[in-house]
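Q: Given only this backbone (282 positions), what sequence would you predict?
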């Protein structure tokens, strides 16, 4: 494939702001090929441990190695470690499942290239087109990486203009802490555990995405959600995949207070609160 996404260099007479700097296709391919060589030299177990290390040799700016088996199970992902061991082939959020099926075919037929629309945290969390390149390691699995190549070519409804009276919410939001209350004859409380909300799309007053959180027994849940801004432009009504409701209130553009309730079961009703902070490093 030709390197039409190589680093852009403004002409000397240009009076406009220089174009964003993008990694070249050649750099992407060389990076992935070096990871394949590492597997061949060190074996699968050692290589996957290195690929999963966020401080390892295969995390270089926007470039990092991810690995999947051909059934869609994540073997390595240093940016989203909670996905390791998770089968994502039928994951609809963000088109991940479709992307993995396309990459399975691409790496098997030797082309190796694919595309996905993905949030670019280094450029204002805008939705951009990401070029992926993967290589089949053996009959069971493949590895790859990706580079941003500019604005995503999406249908108008998927990437609309957001009115000024509704804050831009696309991005990653994390909770530093939170509390869960169990209400029965007594009121018991415990820490909420890990919470990460990812807003992947916004259509005017409607936002959507997924949230990842820890249950009291230590298991991790991944649920899709939709949120709708109320007319005040500061409060949001949320509903998630199980049909539970929550209310969000923006304290400022980077801080979101969440309050939620859950009917629970015959033993207790649950309620909770979180303070989510926009992750500007995500």
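A: Predicted residues:
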């Amino acid at each position: 494939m030709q390197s039409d996404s190589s680093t852009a260099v403004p002409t000397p007479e240009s009076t406009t702001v220089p174009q964003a700097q993008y990694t070249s296709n050649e750099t992407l391919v060389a990076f992935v090929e070096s990871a394949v060589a590492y597997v061949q030299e060190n074996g699968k177990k050692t290589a996957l441990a290195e690929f999963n290390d966020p401080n390892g040799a295969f995390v270089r700016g926007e470039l990092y190695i991810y690995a999947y088996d051909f059934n869609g199970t994540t073997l390595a992902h240093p940016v989203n470690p909670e996905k390791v061991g998770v089968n994502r082939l039928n994951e609809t959020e963000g088109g991940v499942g479709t992307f993995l099926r396309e990459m399975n075919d691409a790496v098997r037929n030797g082309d190796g290239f694919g595309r996905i629309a993905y949030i670019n945290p280094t450029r204002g969390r805008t939705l951009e087109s990401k070029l992926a390149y993967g290589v089949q390691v053996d009959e069971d699995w493949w590895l790859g990486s990706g580079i941003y190549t500019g604005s995503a070519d999406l249908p108008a409804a998927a990437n609309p203009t957001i009115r000024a009276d509704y804050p831009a919410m696309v991005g990653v939001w994390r909770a530093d802490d939170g509390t869960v209350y169990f209400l029965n004859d007594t009121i018991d409380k415990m820490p909420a555990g890990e919470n990460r909300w990812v807003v992947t799309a916004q259509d005017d007053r409607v936002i959507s995405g997924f949230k990842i959180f820890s249950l009291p027994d230590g298991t991790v849940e991944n649920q899709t959600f939709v949120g709708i801004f109320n007319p005040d432009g500061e409060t949001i009504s949320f509903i998630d995949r199980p049909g539970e409701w929550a209310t969000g209130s923006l304290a400022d553009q980077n801080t979101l207070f969440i309050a939620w309730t859950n009917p629970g079961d015959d033993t207790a009703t649950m309620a909770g609160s979180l303070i989510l902070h926009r992750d500007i490093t995500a």
